[in-house]
Amino acid sequence: MSDSLISAMRRCGASLAETSSRQAEAAGGPFYGTVAGKSGAKLKVNAKGASLLLPMTTACASAKDGDRCIIEMIGPQAIVTGILAK
User: Alpha-carbon distance 12 to 27, whole Å?
Assistant: First the structure.
């Protein structure tokens, strides 16, 4: 391979890594919500001023109205991953 092609590939890889890093920072990590209902494998959650119907992990199966929960962004999808102990 030519030196210019190798250099271009390195720049592209560095740019992609930087973009991924910025997207992870923008997601803001986990946040909290309050359970407002349950429908099958989804929880209705009030968080950040919105009412959301989100998928949940099996760890949240015993959630009840009023429980505080942890919501994580996994790719473009928000998922309820845990219930806080009372």
Answer: 23
pLDDT in tens, 34-46: 999 999 999 999 9
62 Cβ partners below 8 Å, 6+ apart?
83
Around Cβ 44, how many Cβ atoms within 10 Å? Answer: 16
pTM of the model: 0.67
Q: What is the pLDDT of residues 20-73, one digit of tens each?
A: 555 544 556 799 999 999 999 999 999 989 999 999 999 999 999 999 999 999
Q: To 5 degrees, how large is the angle CA 30–CA 22–CA 12?
A: 140
How far apart, in whole angstroms, are the C-alpha atoms of residue 25 and residue 19? 10
- Size (the chain), residues: 86
How far is 81 from 1, CA to CA, in rounded Å? 47
CA–CA distance, 7 with 20 (Å, rounded to integer): 20
